[in-house]
Amino acid sequence: MRKKFGKILYITLFAIVIFLASSLGWFGVIRRSWSLAVVFNGTALLIIMIDVYMTIFDIRFYLISLILTILLLIVNIFLSIDLDGIRRQEDLIRRARIEEHNRRRKLAQMEQQKLYYKSMFPDSNEN
After folding, report:
1. Who contacts 65 (Cβ-Cβ below 8 Å, separation ≥6)?
2. Radius of gyration (Cα) for the chain, nearest Å?
3. What is the number of other CB atoms lying within 10 angstroms of the CB of residue 75?
4. What pLDDT score was predicted for residue 114?
5. Is 20 exposed, middle or buried (0-12, 13-18, 19+ CB in 10 A)?
6. Where are the alpha helices (DSSP H) in the chain?
7. Dihedral sign computed on CA atoms, order 41, 68, 7, 17
8. Does pTM top 0.90 for this prediction?
9. For 54-104, what is each residue's pLDDT tens digit?
């Protein structure tokens, strides 16, 4: 009876971890934070695979697998944070390039206008 309760407890814990990982993954989809979505949905799939293999091969290392799964989830959280930071840096670089391009284009337009107005109104000092 005690073994059966322990097995049900570990399966329930796996289900809770899978649910949390999937929920956070879909929260990432809603927020359009794709690294968050990939990390947590990928973690949920890995947990399901671990659970399936444990069931198929009748492995009874539920606690070890659960601990490894939680460690994997923590590592994936840090990877997600890192990926978001990289994405933000790339976005800032892209914006800076666009602003620089716009600034140069505006300077060129101003120079062109200056030349145009000079040609329209010649200096009276040139006589």
Report:
1. 14, 50, 51, 54, 59
2. 30
3. 12
4. 87
5. middle
6. 2-31, 34-56, 62-120
7. negative
8. no
9. 666 666 666 666 677 777 777 777 776 776 677 788 888 999 999 999 999
